[in-house]
Hints:
Blueprint: H1 2-17, H2 26-43, E1 54-61, E2 70-77, E3 83-89, H3 95-101, H4 103-117, E4 124-130, E5 136-142, H5 147-165, H6 183-187
Parallel strand pairs: 3-4
Antiparallel strand pairs: 1-2, 2-3, 4-5
Helix pairs in contact: 1-2, 4-5
Amino acid sequence: MIAGAFEDAFIKLEREEGPVKWKDGEREKSRLAGLRVVAAYLDSPEAPKAKPRAVEVPLTEDIAGLCVPLTGTIDLVTDCFAPIDFKSAAAKPDPRHAVFDHEIQLVAYQLLLERAVGEKPPSLDLVFLVKTKVPQVIRVSSRPADAKRKDRVVRMLDTAVIGMSEGRFHPQPGMMCMSCQYRNECSRWPGVMERRAA
């Protein structure tokens, strides 16, 4: 059943994100690697034992201090109300760097959940599916954000929104671009902005 769902998702991604120009044998190698990672996850302690509260839950909420509604889709909300975001990785993550790198996303999920449900999550978690020869599943947990962390994230988000709405957008290509849904739009940015009237 799981293998069939994986195969369906694999074919759907090829169709919707393609065309994919596979080299000889690469498609099968990639498909099998994906199946191994899924099997590792299902055999790990990170696979939910109890029914989760939500899966792929889209939320949009008005957050105090943010000039637009905050929108996000949380991969998984466990039975104990911990939001989890799944990440794929080629190497074992450094927990401190992982939490820092994903601070905005994790705190945004906390803000969305607290606003939607009125409940504070016990932790903010990342689950890394590490695509090594023998796949690993690694959970990185961080404590819920206090008022200071939440305020910092809201201010960062608001600054970004205002900057983009005023045409002050400067792409900063990096590793994170590979999974960004706006990668194509960003790569077409001409590098020129209209000057604002003084």
